Amino acid sequence: MEKAAKKKTANMRHGYTTGACSTAVTKAALLTLITGEVQEQATIHLPIGQDATFTIETCEWNGSSVRAETIKDAGDDPDATHQALIVSTVSWADTPGIHLDGGVGVGRVTKPGLPIPVGEAAINPVPRKMIITTVEETLKEFQINRGVKVVISVPDGEEIAKKTLNARLGIIGGISILGTRGIVVPFSSSAYMASIVQAISVAKAGGCDHLVLTTGGRSEKYAMELLPQLREEAFIEMGDFVGFSLKQCKKQGIKKVTLVGMMGKFSKVAQGVMMVHSKSAAVDFGFLAEIARSVGANRELITEIKNANTASQVGDMMAEANHFEFFNKLCRYCCYSSLHDIKGGIELETAIYTLKGQLLGRAVGIDTIDETDWNRR
């Protein structure tokens, strides 16, 4: 079964993020603006270190600007933006620098707590950097020193956004331009879970009795810095499958597990949610507010937490107020909820980080539930 799942995953087709598509059409439009030659393809460098070539569906002059379009291919297991038309309109700017904004169908941020300031287009940091770096490199190649204006649009973006959580997060008017790797790695749930089982088996076979389960690549990096004494195979990306991964660890006789992740997903684990996909359950801000109250947060801060937009925003609030016991307690609750879910049998610890790698809180050596503490949740 595991071999079949692995083979299925290997044969699944990778796709590209909206960030990568936006970068490609920007390069095509800029090259057309510079050379006067309409571009039919654009090759860009992805964050994962690979080059990718995109087909440009349309590339045309519109007076003093160039508009280039591509169709997003999300590969197998397509997401809400699969087959979306991604557009970049590029023109020379009157002022120096690269001026990046969102047009029709790209959401605008209206609430704090996201990695983009309020009022700006919802173009996330990595795609933003990809687009700006590509423009800079292209200008340098042609020895041009002029300001450039770039507007990313997704004509059907407002309709597509109804299938996402953007409105709940305060991103209004369209989708977000996303992606940290440039590619969409396809995983069906069954294939992903099979890969987790296989990774645990490999680690166990290699003599690892302490495993580290992380929610993604970034948290895995921080986990490796936290626990450098462990071998590489001890670190396993569980994604959203917290409960499943822990049960597999118990089933295979792993003695100790460290959970490493960030506020958003681990706020859910602390609540007792063991499948932490963004659509699986909402963050309970009342729950977070109660933990804040228990560690001494004042009434004003508690009210702000109850009205927060994201768990990350709550984390920022508590860190700014120097209430770091909040994070330690949240980590303990992650351990308790996990032990409850798997009915014990493993020693657990949890570490919560910020996106930038700051360790916010940690709980270690927990193999039983402190019922008094846990029941205060």
Key terms:
five-stranded mixed sheet, single chain, 23% strand, 14 helices, alpha/beta, 377 residues
Question: Would you mind describing this structure in some detail?
Answer:
- The chain has 14 helices and 18 strands.
- With 377 residues, the chain is an alpha/beta fold.
- It folds into 2 domains: 171 residues, CbiD-like, CATH 3.30.2110.10; 186 residues, no CATH class.
- Helix 2 packs parallel to helix 3.
What's the short version?
It contains 14 helices and 18 strands. With 377 residues, the protein is α/β, with parallel strands linked by helices.
Q: What's the rounded overall pLDDT mean?
A: 91
Helix content: 25-40%
Integer count of domains: 2
Large-scale geometry: globular
- How much strand? 15-25%
The profile of the biggest β sheet is: 5 strands, mixed
Strand order of the largest sheet: 4-5-6-10-7
Please give the number of β-strands: 18
Number of helices, counting only DSSP H or I runs of 4 residues or more: 14
Content-based structural category: alpha/beta
List the helices and strands and how they pair.
Layout: H1 2-11, E1 15-16, H2 18-35, E2 41-45, E3 51-55, E4 58-62, E5 65-71, E6 85-93, E7 98-102, E8 105-106, E9 108-109, H3 125-141, E10 147-153, H4 157-160, H5 166-169, E11 171-172, E12 174-175, E13 183-184, H6 189-205, E14 210-214, H7 217-226, E15 235-237, H8 242-251, E16 256-262, H9 263-271, H10 285-294, H11 299-306, H12 311-320, H13 325-342, E17 347-353, E18 359-366, H14 371-374
Parallel strand pairs: 7-10, 8-12, 14-15, 14-16, 16-17
Antiparallel strand pairs: 1-13, 2-3, 4-5, 5-6, 6-10, 9-11, 17-18
Helix pairs in contact: 1-6, 2-3, 6-8, 9-12, 9-13, 10-11
